[in-house]
Specification:
The protein is an alpha/beta fold. The chain has helices at about 15-25, 40-50, 60-65, 75-80, 100-110, 140-145, 155-165, 170-185, 190-210, 215-225, 230-240, 245-260; strands at about 5-10, 30-35, 55, 70, 90-95, 115-120, 130-135, 150. Bound molecules: NADP nicotinamide-adenine-dinucleotide phosphate (NAP). NADP nicotinamide-adenine-dinucleotide phosphate (NAP) binds next to helix 1 and helix 4.
Length: about 260
């Protein structure tokens, strides 16, 4: 599936910055990108870094000038930004706006557009993103496959579940922080703890990525935990003393928020 000739971005904040850099880094995946001026510092820097960027102060000009429009504004202002815009029937619209329902988006858009929702993560900047999209859509998948991997969700339930899982990024770094903190409390200088923990976690993630699709994470957990050894003891303690319960409870609470 070829990528759209002109993608327009309404809202030029941190996630647009990451997506546009990912799309335009050499070799560029798309010929042109149009974006709203706001945030002015971000759009000015993107325009300075990439000649293919066209900045506009007029959101309607972006909708008019692009075949695919990416909505990347905060949920609190989404309605007031989207409602006044005139979209074309059949136009492709991708919303990355968090916690905003498809029926609301369609009502504000007010035209018979092809709407998909997506959850890009900051790694799209390095074309290493994994982006959940809903509903499945070849145009949207092509964009996010250029930025890493698109995961097409067959149902809203699947999409909400992946949205919940994406909320584990803070916990991932939080566990690294707590481990480093514990090392420091017990006498290891913080910089040494950091130098040890970051590659340890990076290599574990790499191992999970490289393992075949038939290898379950629990298989890896067992492989890295010798019977009666320290890793087994640590996981049994974590699991048995509420760690796994707390994790699932946290995911449940995120799911409640994203699925309303
Ligand atoms: N950051 C992430 O990793 C991430 C990941 C997935 C999804 N998202 C979602 O993507 C959306 C944007 O997130 P973000 O982190 O990029 O937020 P952000 O950095 O605050 O960007 C939002 C942008 O919208 C601009 N804006 C405000 N009013 C506008 C208007 N009337 N017309 C055009 N642009 C306008 C803001 O400009 P000013 O600064 O000038 O007000 C700002 O540049 C949110 O809904 C967020 O939930 C973010």
């Amino acid at each position: 599936m070829p990528l759209p000739a002109k993608i327009g971005f309404i809202g030029t904040g941190s996630i647009t910055d990451a997506m546009v850099r990912g799309l335009l880094v050499e070799p560029a995946a798309v010929p042109h990108v149009m974006m709203s001026q706001r945030s002015a510092d971000v759009s000015a820097k993107l325009a300075a870094d990439f000649p293919q960027v066209l900045v506009s102060i007029d959101n309607q000009a972006i909708v008019d000038g692009c075949d695919t429009v990416m909505l990347a504004i905060r949920p609190q202002i989404a309605e007031e930004v989207i409602r006044p815009l005139l979209f074309r029937d059949g136009q492709k619209v991708i919303s990355v706006i968090a916690a905003t329902s498809r029926p609301n988006l369609l009502e504000w858009i007010g035209a018979d557009v092809l709407l998909t929702q997506a959850i890009p993560l900051p790694f799209v900047e390095r074309r290493k993103g994994v982006t959940a999209i809903y509903p499945p859509d070849a145009n949207t998948a092509a964009i996010f496959n250029a930025l890493g991997t698109a995961v097409e969700c067959a149902t809203k339930v699947e999409y909400d579940l992946l949205a919940s899982a994406s909320a584990l990024m803070g916990t991932y770094f939080g566990i690294m922080h707590r481990a480093t903190e514990w090392l420091a409390e017990n006498g290891l200088p913080e910089e040494k703890g950091r130098a040890y923990i970051a590659p340890l976690f990076a290599e574990l993630s790499e191992t999970a990525l490289l393992a075949g699709k038939d290898t379950k994470f629990l298989d890896l957990s067992r492989e890295f935990a010798t019977k009666g050894g320290l890793n087994e003891q640590a996981f049994l303690d974590f699991d048995g003393k509420g760690g796994s319960g707390a994790l699932k409870q946290a995911l449940n609470r995120v799911l409640e928020r994203v699925s309303t």
